[in-house]
Design brief:
two-stranded parallel sheet, 9 strands, single chain, globular, seven-stranded antiparallel sheet, alpha+beta, about 25% strand
Length: about 230
């Protein structure tokens, strides 16, 4: 008996160039979708950031009903923030009559689990920081939270000295965090027991914010108190 063996025809293989073309098309489409989503969400993200910043300004400067944004110029002064303006931002806070209540300035310092970004209130009438609000922190829950809520720690920012030196170009005394219970100077921050690293991050954030912003504020204080341009 003769057995016939049927040979199945091999399926034609897909050319390599065709696969590459397909993969390239998928990659191009994916990139286009990502770009479209980014362009769509960018204004939403910017608006959310604006609202969060405004809330933080009004929290550190209670009584304010309006704010104006300024940038620190390359020359070390201040100018009203406009579209396309570059430079570190500071925020002037005003009461209903347009009187300047203080400035909101920001700084950051390395914490236990990453940078701690903080907004501080600066009062030119006392040359001091009068409030604080943590904007970004990854510190250990239960310890890092105290930076915003511990009443004893927050007393550090009721009148934290930020006076300038005789030249007006830097703080007369750098703001530093000291061991809990050892504060002896108005420019020192009394650390939280058990959260020394986080406390030091706040000190570094306050010092960096004041060193950068206070010289510009004191130099161009008239810009802050003058009426806004129509």
């Amino acid at each position: 008996m003769t057995t016939e063996v049927q040979i199945q025809p091999q399926a034609a293989s897909t050319p390599a160039w065709a696969m590459l073309r397909t993969l390239g098309g998928i990659a191009l489409l994916s990139g286009l979708l990502v770009a479209l989503v980014y362009q769509f969400t960018l204004p939403i993200i910017a608006e959310n950031q604006r609202v969060l910043t405004e809330k933080a300004v009004f929290r550190v400067l209670p009584g304010a009903v309006g704010k104006r944004d300024f940038v620190i110029t390359p020359e070390g002064g201040l100018a009203p923030a406009e579209a396309g303006a570059s430079g570190d931002l500071i925020y002037g806070a005003y009461d209903a009559g347009g009187r300047l209540l203080g400035l909101a300035i920001t700084g950051s310092g390395p914490g236990y689990a990453g940078p701690v970004k903080v907004m501080f209130a600066y009062d030119p009438s006392c040359d001091c920081i009068t409030g604080s609000k943590v904007l970004q922190s990854n510190e250990t829950p239960g310890f890092g939270d105290k930076l915003d809520f511990d009443p004893d720690f927050l007393k550090n920012f009721e009148a934290l000295d930020a006076r300038l030196d005789a030249a007006g170009t830097a703080l007369a005394n750098a703001i530093v965090t000291v061991k809990h219970g050892t504060k002896s100077e108005p420019w020192q921050i009394d650390a939280i027991t058990g959260a020394t690293i986080s406390s030091k991050a706040m000190g570094r954030a306050a010092n960096s914010a004041a060193q950068r912003a206070v010289p510009a504020i004191e130099r161009d204080l008239a810009v802050l108190t003058s009426p806004p341009s129509p």
